[in-house]
Amino acid sequence: MNTKQPMSLTGRVILGMVTGILTGFFIQSFLADVSFVHEYLVNGLFEVGGQIFISSLQMLVVPLIFVSLVCGTSSLQDITTLGRMGGKTLGFYLVTTAVAITLALTMGTLFQPGAGADLTAAASFQSAEAPSLGQVIINMFPKNPIASMAQGNTLQIIVFAILFGIAISAAGEAGKRIANVFSDLNEVIMKLVALLMNIAPFGVFFLMAKLFSGLGLGAIWSLGGYFLVLTGTLLLHGFVTYGVLLKGLTGLNPVIFLRKMEDAIMFAFSTASSNATIPVTLETVKNRLGVKNRVASFTVPLGATVNMDGTAIMQGVATAFIAQAFNIDLTMGDYLAVILTATLASVGTAGVPGVGLIMLAMVLNQVGLPLEGIALIMGVDRLLDMIRTAVNITGDSAASVIVANSEGALDKERFNDPLAGEKEEEVHFVPAEENK
Ligand code: ASP
Q1: CATH H-level superfamily of 9-424
Q2: To test the ligand 1 pocket, which listed residue (93, 308, 363, 374) has its Cβ within 8 A of the most ligand atoms?
Q3: The pTM is what?
Q4: Which residue has the CA at smallest separation from atom 1 of ligand 1?
Q5: Helix, strand or coil for residue 342?
């Protein structure tokens, strides 16, 4: 009998990540001039493996959001629950984003990372206009749900799925039959998520090895102050703000919460995309943290688009940094404009890599700071993007637990059980007839 315990998925993903980072550094330090390595490994195997991994995660996002949210909405006993839950979730997201950016502006002003910085911008940057609130709301409503799905427009898919779910619960017997189909589909898609999570150690290895073999760390030294203040604020928000909110509003232990977030945090870190991480965040929130599908299927995809606390923090620190580097004083009104624009910009933008910089351009425009400032910080943005994406999805998950707790939709036993969710991550290939 084999008594050896297999390594947990988290352990394997950590292993993939660490070996990937080390491999990347090794290539950068010792094999930088070997064209064979770059051609066949870095831009060959690592690039192909990493991109396939990200595409497979993205492949799940649209069907997963649609199916799980239709299931969640159609199982609600009472439609008014939806309005209450929606109000709480949006309120929570807006308040935490505003807290995040205020914290960032305070830290940026206190530690003055850009003071005395003698930096010259190497490139220019084009900005888009910040969307108006009206436009953000209009854009949430789909004209054509198939087009919304084809474009992966999360907010529009959410609106359509909610309406579809409501119609199912109002459609009597026919609705029940369709609800059963969706419930079965949901099981199957969650198995697909588990399947992909099991190949993640390789995917994460490829992504990290590719990234770190070309990541210029020199820029971090010259922007050390910015890097440190931003990372410190991100960690402060990730550990303290969410920890206090979780403890204060639910009485649950924040350490258990963070430990269970490990997998999702690593996925967010390696993909730098809240959107691509949705399948893993949803799996973690439901199976490990014990949030019922009717809450998680709504809060997680909504959060991935609307709630980006880490990104908001970057915008706060970056604005302070750029203002200091260019010797421009910001007024109280400017600070308020930064908070409002950053919050609004984060609502209408999907969580994909690097989008924070585009939002930053809108913020800088709003307060009249030079867009060249963005070129200053671009060199270190990739690594910071990875960290802030991890904070973004931690915020979505904390909100899911808090809202679920207030709605009686949290399985506290599951939350406190260290092994919860491990069974769901297993994938066995059993022929259909034996699987009954
Ligand atoms: N990459 C971030 C996310 O997906 C967004 C950003 O800050 O660029 O959440």
Answers
A1: Sodium:dicarboxylate symporter (1.10.3860.10)
A2: 308
A3: 0.88
A4: 353
A5: helix
